Amino acid sequence: MRFASLGSGSRGNATLVEAGGTRVLVDCGFAAREAERRLAAVGVAPADLCAILVTHEHGDHVRGVVPLATRYGLEVWSTPGTWRALGGPELPGLRLFSPHNGTLRVGDLRVTPFPVPHDAREPAQLVLDHNGTRLGVLTDTGSVTAHARALLAECDALMLECNHDLGLLRGGPYPPVLQARVSGPFGHLSNDQAAALVDEIPHRRLRHLLIAHLSAKNNRPSLARQALLQVAADLAPRLALAEQDRPTRWLAL
Question: What is the pLDDT of residue 192?
């Protein structure tokens, strides 16, 4: 099992996961042509994808979903609320799931969606499992629930939102109403919230911790790294950053 971020941030998000003979995208917030370019950068052809797993309907996560799925005949997995919020476009490969009903089978992957508090219609995040090796994806949530914490405690790798530094957010360009939305219980995780989660799970088993969804205006990579390393200094060689403008390398499990 291996994974790579194709880009992460407010201008687009997509994560590629491969296990056995299955390749899936978690979200596709880039235009189809840009998604194709980024896939090529990590050596994958779009036609080799099996499915796109959609976490929620915000544009930076779904911009290329329908065009890419239509062009290559891909399955799309979504919660009913997310798909309704997108206007319910018709796709022959649409598969709807509930984030409350356990595990899905997508090719060689077992996928466990779980609900998160975020300002979307029916958002979900995911744990992806292949032969007992687990990747957790937690971005776009304003807080960490006990259920999410329990699922992520069993993961071998984690893609984790470090959206903002609270001091930079409060002193930055966002108006107060937007600051409140970002830092609120249905917004995005701060560096400190992410660090608290890492401190609460058995982080020594993590082979990779990928910092994701960093705000360009309200955070800096050095601050995110500092917050995480303050609670788990031994994670330093296992930390990586998902950048907005280019894919990461493949991270193997």
Answer: 98
Q: What is the mean pLDDT of each run of 10 residues along the chain (253 residues)?
A: 98 98 98 98 97 98 98 98 97 96 96 98 98 98 98 97 98 97 98 98 96 98 98 96 98 97
List CB contacts of 27: < 8 A, sequence separation 6 or more: 13, 14, 15, 52, 53, 54, 55, 61, 62, 65
Q: Return phi, psi of residue 198, to 5°.
A: -60, -40
Own/partner long-range contacts of 113-118 (Cβ < 8 Å, ≥24 apart): 113/79, 114/147, 114/148, 114/151, 115/145, 115/147, 116/140, 116/141, 116/145, 116/148, 117/141, 117/142, 117/143, 117/145, 117/185, 117/186, 118/56, 118/142, 118/186, 118/187
Q: Are 237 and 251 in contact (CB under 8 A)?
A: no
pTM of the model: 0.97
Asked whether residue 59 is domain-assigned, the answer is yes
Distance of CA 176 to the CA centre of its chain: 26
In a domain, 177, yes or no: yes
The boundaries of the domain holding residue 95 are: 2-243
Q: Provide the number of structural domains found in the chain.
A: 1
